[in-house]
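Amino acids appear as letters; backbone shape is given numerically. Here is one record.
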Amino acid sequence: MNIIKFISYIFVLGALSGSTQASGPDSVSDSYISLALQGDLSTAESLFSGLNPDTAPTSITELAARFQARFIDHSEDLSPGTGDAFTDAIVSIYRKYWILTLMGNMSKPEGQAFLNASLQQVISQRDQVEYSNQSSDVFEIVGKIFDDKGVHYLDTPAPPLRDLFLWRTEKHRKYSVRLTDHTQKVSVTFIDDIYSQGWKQFATLDLVATTGWVEDGHLFCVDAAYDRSSENFEVSYLKHESRHLADFERFPGLQSAELEYRAKLTELAFASTSTRQLLDDFTSKSASNPASPHAYANYRVSRDVYREIYDKPFPETGNAWQGITTQSVNKAARDLLQRATEKLQADRQ
């Protein structure tokens, strides 16, 4: 099994407002997503308290009902229904682990112990002598079993939880990606027939999902998530992920939040039609929480770009990006990224 170095990009699947000062259904949705991406849904039920099903928007009543079924009543079937007993059992275990830790029924270490023990129990129910002789690591054993089934498997820490991706189909393509400081050659594997798309998709009730990652110098992409002719793919996937790959090579050991910060600045440095959407998205899904790399990177990017353009702190009320120009954002992002790179180079001399 390959060692996974980083799980990276988050793709918004739902149609959400990006304003941190939004009200109504967008505010509820954004608040829910923010809690979910920080790996803590223990207070999420309060978002739906007092909800009047007769007057509330359908999108919010449906979100509340799905949250209730999955995280409170535990009435949802956790099996992906693949028809393969082993695959269904493994995915169900991860989903139960995610529920228990997201809701605070278990601490993160307790959840990890539960996951390990549950996987070991499933393995022990099969004839695993051959696999157990090859490794004592339960995750490697599970991976080997999936290899033999022809199913692609990714288990990796994706703070604050552990992640699981399972898929069956792959297609491959090479790209030459221009970044702010050089051109990065990359190989991309597009994945399809997905059985599990990670804890973020599960926690956010499909509003948000991880759609790409870097593994040993190679990019992976959820094929159905992108129109490959769009700026979303060209900038928010290819340039974002290529920045990760370049940073792995130039600055090994860089922390996840710093990697995300640099990749998001790269998006803003090249964005044209999606500039405002990116700013709103980063702002609405930000949190001053270093334990959540994506949310913390969003927090830093939105505030640093604002200060770079306006030379004052990010406003706590109103719409921060009203009247913003693409050119000013492109320049601010490039300048911030260049200074961050120079600092990293100086620190490593």
